[in-house]
Specification:
Blueprint lengths: L2 H46 L1 H32 L13 E3 L8 H9 L4 E3 L3 E2 H10 L21 E6 L3 H11 L5 E6 L4 H6 L11 H14 L4 E7 L3 H14 L1 E10 L17 H10 L5 E4 L5 H11 L3 E4 L1 H5 L18 E5 L20 H23 L6 H8 L1 H18 L14 E5 H8 L2 H14 L4 H11 L1 H6 L3 H5 L4 H16 L8 H34 L7 H4 L7 H9 L2 H11 L5 H5 L25 H4 L3
Parallel strand pairs: 1-2, 1-9, 2-4, 3-4, 4-5, 5-6, 6-7, 7-8, 8-9
Antiparallel strand pairs: 10-11
Length: 643
Amino acid sequence: MGADELMEIANNDEDTSSSTKKSINKSKKKKKDKSSKKKDKKRKHDEKSPKKSKKKKRKLLDQERQTQDVAAQDNQQQLLAAPTTKQHFPFEYQHILAPMVGASELAFRLLCRKYGATLSYTPMMSASEFVQEAATAKHGITSSNICEFQTIPQDRPLVCHFSANEPQDFARAAALVEPYCDAIDLNLGCPQRTAYLGHFGSYLLGKEDRQLIVDIIRAGSKAVSKPIFVKIRLLDTVEDTLELCHQLRDAGASLIAIHARYRASWERTAAGARDGPAMLDQVQKIKESMPDFPIISNGNVITYDDVVNNQTLTGADGIMSAEGILNNPALYLPRYGDLDKDGERSIELPKLSPLLNNVEQNQSSGSTSDKAGRKLNKKLREIIAIEKKIAESGEDSINDDQRSKLQAKSEVQTKLLEIENSSKCNKAPNQLPESDATPQTITVKLSDLAASGRNPLALAQEYVSLVKQYPMKIRSVVFHTRRMCKDLFEKYQLMEECIACTSVEEVDAVLSKCAKYVANPKSFHYDQEKAARDKESLENKRLEEGKRKRYEGRMIRKAKREGLSDLHHYLRMGAEVPSVETVKKLKKAPKEERLSVWKKNHSQHCMAHHLEEGGCKRDRSCAFIHGAATSKLIFVEDAEVAG
């Protein structure tokens, strides 16, 4: 083909293209004109009937808003009521009651379950003490009230929560409680000073103990078929915490609950323990890095809106509450539905049964069922006694024979675990009484639950009635009652009266008095002198707290000056709070004995304040601690909420 022919074809193509463009433009112009005519026609129509047009627009806007509101409500209800995470276990774990020393006992667990908690943890139990007490128990675990562990069939799903620093202790404790729970948890979050002295809780989170906690998890997961959970605190960086979580998962942990505050230090100089808001953004990053592994978020939860916001922000598989649910055991109630609009909704609740005791009366633990088990348990008790002696008097206080027994601890524990597992395989699994084989339930309306759930006084009275059925130490009863009714007790000056209660009946009487004031406020008369005494008591408490921090600073500086590698050396000396019994005994003892005992065990506390007639004459100027002696009725609140 020649050049002239090619040029002719190109010219023809241009003509065709030009013609096509003109045709398209004409078509667009026609459509535009047609659209313009329609708009003009509509404008003229609207000008003739403007009112009708505006009404129609308003109607359409209202319909659109209603549709959006309904959609928003549906989305909110889905967030409030429906689990949005993958189920990893055959039980719900979206709304959790946290483990709390002296606070998450059976009666309180049952109260929280009724009002929406789907999973509950026991208080922290020492694995070594649990094993030791089980070895001498005449009946089964719950019948003997070992480490105050109580449960009933309706107390499920349940997580048994242990502190431990020995793999075999944790493994044996896990095996003992396995029939009565749905998971076993290792405490790596407790910030108490007792945890530092006993070397457990958050004080095991350092790099130097990493292999130890990995070994503990592995031992537990091998000893039982139930899942092993772990509760931790944040490390110094997100990367460090994430590394820890991966190591725990690889060792056999099935779930990790993260208290989103930093681990505590003995001298409490760093942020952590319970200071400031929880750092939920770090939980979010950890969950994003471990999308298929169950992560529980703990922190910044006071209301149910906080529960929803926490889960939305972190993407966690469940939310755990301690402080929030102590103030309001009905914290999770809105998960059942809208408390105002869904009042007629029926809620099925389990009918509660007595404590598990008949089930176990004829059943003893496998480790004590034969001669070998009894001998091994005797050896273990001797070893524990030796360890206590070392803790009190140092390594030099034991002889070579005792050192030899101490070295055999791991071997003794291994043999005991073997006997325990062998016994478990050879006997039939625990069965509940036939009357409990078919779960019995009661039906209540959501409106009825909402009425009592919104009334702190009604919640406290319901809790006390549960305590009468499932007894608990009076200090825990007082603790819960005053937390639930704090505002009412302060309003009607009943707080000190509640704290002074020594029986459940006395607590009940205080609640009855409060109910009388609520029903008839005019019957209450404000006592100015009592208010002044309460104010002075609060000021003294604050003074003691400040004094303690200054003392700790001096002791750490002293250790530095002396070049001690252990900066907490002096802080551990004499830190033990004297008991009421000790104070009574020492008041009658000779002066030399007083000084000897006090210097050895209580040197950080003011001896004159506790033992002298009229107390310490230096009063506020005294450099020693002026705290209350401990007893079964007296407690420090921070010691009650651990983890």
